[in-house]
Write a structure and sequence with these properties.
single chain; about 160 residues; alpha/beta; 6 strands; about 40% helix; disordered C terminus
Amino acid sequence: MTLTAYTREHHFYVAIAKHVFLHADKGIVFVNDPIRLKDAEKFDLKPLVLYGLTVPGTQIEWQTFSLLDEPRSLSGVLLEGWEKASGLRGYPDKLKINRHIANACPQLQKSLDHIGGISLEIADGRDKQFSASLRVAQQRGLELGWYNVMAMSSTMLKS
């Protein structure tokens, strides 16, 4: 019997959420069409930062948010995802990030070494699978809003 080594890879992305905002009175607000930050400001909508981990080639993903003016530690976000998201099954062998994250957090490789020797790879601009991870995550934010609307609608219909 031959055993094949399998490298577990996760994609990590950080972006400003295009469809999800925070409003002081209304709470979480979902918008169909992405709006610019300046336009969001006019409606007292605070932008949120979207952090996410995905397993490429699957629908396994984990997301969390923070306020734009209160960003979270990237190492803290990664640890939370790996510890709480059961579908990710813990730490990967390899973590793929974009060059913006690499430039913003040059100590990330050191942090990953302390966690468990996770190798870090920087995706090049032509990596379609990596780019798709972020695109899908932005879309999931909008879908989250629709799920909430549908749940509220069905609850209202029952009462």
